[in-house]
Amino acid sequence: MSFGRLERTPGPQPMSEINMTPLVDVMLVLVVIFIITAPLLVGSIQVDLPKAQSAAPPRTAPFVALILDKTGQVYVDEQPVEQAALLRVLQDAARQDSETEVRLRADAHVPYGRVVELMGWVHKAGLSRIGFVTEPLRQNTAK
Fold it and tell me: Hey, where are the domains in the chain?
């Protein structure tokens, strides 16, 4: 029997490179979280806007955003308001700048009379510029 020296294999060497797999996993999880939460951060009031072709506005002027939902409720900057409060807001805007534009987002299913009534309140407050916000009309590309 001979006694010899057994060869030992060297142990694992320390890694000198960064392992990118955990970093990529974390980044993919963050992307999924942002994809899920981004649509929730957009406007909270659902309005079915009518479709129309229009040009982009040429300049940015002071404006008041009015929303009229399908139940007939009026909102100013996404806050529900009654007629008296709406008139005060519109009169304040008219005092600050008589060229203030009212951007009206009315649901397509609201009766026309309700829209005209709201336009009358705007006119009564001293504002004459009313813009109707619509969605762009989609062109049918398949012929």
Answer: 63-132
- CB proximity list for 74: less than 8 A, separation 6 or greater: 66, 67, 68, 80, 81, 83, 86, 118
Q: What is the DSSP letter of 3?
A: -
Helix, strand counts (H, E) of the chain: 3, 5
Full-model pTM: 0.55
Closest CA to 103 of 78, 79, 131: 131
Q: Using one digit for the tens of pLDDT, what is the confidence trace for 1-57?
A: 566 667 777 778 887 788 888 899 999 999 999 888 887 776 667 778 788 877 766
- The fold of the 63-132 domain, in CATH, is Nucleotidyltransferase; domain 5 (3.30.420)
If residue 105 lies in a helix (H) or strand (E), which one and from where to where? Answer: strand 101-106
Q: Which residues contact 36 (CB under 8 A, 6 or more apart)?
A: none
Q: Tell me which of 75 and 9 has the higher pLDDT.
A: 75
DSSP code, position 28: H
**Residue 134 CA, distance from chain mean position:** 14
